[in-house]
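Supplementary Methods. Inverse-folding protocol.

Structures were first reduced to a C-alpha cell string of length 271. This string, shown here, constituted the complete conditioning input.
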C-alpha cells in the first residue's frame, strides 16, 4: 500500500536529531577535563597578574579613588592606614591578581565553555560566539557597575553614618570589601548565562521562572541583604535592582532557547 505522504525534510531533520545521542563522558573523564580547564585558567590569571604588576601603582590609585572621593567630600584624611608591615605588599598582590582576572576573563570563560561543550549537541555548539561576547560583556559590566555605582554609594553611607568619629580605614579591610563587591557583582551579572544553559538543557523554562517570580524576587532581596556591606534599605535595593533586571532578561532567554519553544518554532516554520 503506498505511503499516505512523503517524509518532509523537516521530519527527516527531526529524525536525525532524535538519532543523535547526547555526548557522554565518564566521571573520571569529567574530573580530568575540569582539572585541565582549572589549570589553564590559573596559568592565564598568573600571566595576567605579571602583565598587570608593572601597572600596580596606577591600579592602586584607581582602586582607592572611591574612598578618596568620599573622604575628601567630608573633609577627612584621604589616606588609608595599615597595621601590619606586609599589608602594603599584599595590597599590590591582590590588586594585580584582580586586574589579571578581569584582563584574562575572555580566556577563563572560554575554558568554561570548553568544559561544558562536550555535553552539548552538535547544533548547540554554535552558541560559542554569543556565549563569549555575552559572558565577557556581562562580567565586565558587573564589575564596572559595582565600581561606579554600588561601591561609592556604600562608602558614602558608611562614612556619613559615622561622620562624628575619626575613621581609620585599613588597607586590608578596604581591599577585602573592594574585591568582594567588584568580583561579586561581576559574578552576579552572569545570571543570564547560567539560565541560558539551564534552559537549553530543559532544566528550567520561562513559564516556571515567571510563575515563581515572587519567590525569586524575595530570594534576590535576601541575597542582596547578605552581600551588601551596609544595613540600609537603599544600598540593598541598589544591589537587588540589577539582579531583578537580569532575572527578567533571563526569562526572555529561557523562552528563546528552551527545547519546547525551539521545536514549536521549527514546526511553525515547516508548515
Amino acid at each position: 500500500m503506498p505511503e499516505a505522504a512523503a517524509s518532509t525534510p523537516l521530519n527527516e531533520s527531526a529524525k536525525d536529531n532524535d538519532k543523535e545521542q547526547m555526548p557522554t563522558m565518564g566521571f573520571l573523564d569529567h574530573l580530568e577535563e575540569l582539572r585541565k580547564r582549572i589549570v589553564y585558567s590559573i596559568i592565564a590569571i598568573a600571566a595576567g597578574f605579571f602583565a598587570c604588576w608593572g601597572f600596580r601603582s596606577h591600579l592602586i590609585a584607581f582602586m582607592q579613588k572611591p574612598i578618596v572621593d568620599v573622604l575628601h567630600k567630608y573633609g577627612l584624611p584621604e589616606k588609608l592606614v595599615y597595621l601590619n608591615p606586609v599589608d602594603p605588599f599584599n595590597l599590590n598582590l591582590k590588586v594585580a591578581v584582580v586586574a589579571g582576572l578581569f584582563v584574562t576573563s575572555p580566556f577563563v570563560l572560554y575554558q568554561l565553555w570548553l568544559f561544558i561543550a562536550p555535553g552539548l549537541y552538535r547544533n548547540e555548539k554554535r552558541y560559542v560566539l554569543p556565549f563569549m561576547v555575552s559572558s565577557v560583556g556581562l562580567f565586565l559590566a558587573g564589575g564596572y557597575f559595582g565600581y561606579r555605582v554600588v561601591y561609592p554609594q556604600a562608602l558614602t553611607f558608611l562614612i556619613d553614618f559615622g561622620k562624628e568619629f575619626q575613621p581609620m580605614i585599613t588597607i586590608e579591610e578596604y581591599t577585602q570589601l573592594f574585591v568582594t563587591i567588584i568580583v561579586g557583582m561581576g559574578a552576579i551579572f552572569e545570571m543570564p548565562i547560567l539560565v541560558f544553559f539551564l534552559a537549553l538543557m530543559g532544566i528550567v523554562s520561562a513559564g516556571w521562572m515567571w510563575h515563581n517570580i515572587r519567590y525569586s524576587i524575595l530570594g534576590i532581596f535576601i541575597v542582596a541583604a547578605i552581600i551588601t556591606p551596609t544595613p540600609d534599605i537603599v544600598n540593598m535595593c541598589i544591589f537587588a535592582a540589577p539582579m531583578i533586571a537580569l532575572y527578567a532578561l533571563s526569562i526572555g532567554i529561557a523562552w528563546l532557547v528552551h527545547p519546547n519553544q525551539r521545536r514549536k518554532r521549527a514546526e511553525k516554520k515547516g508548515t
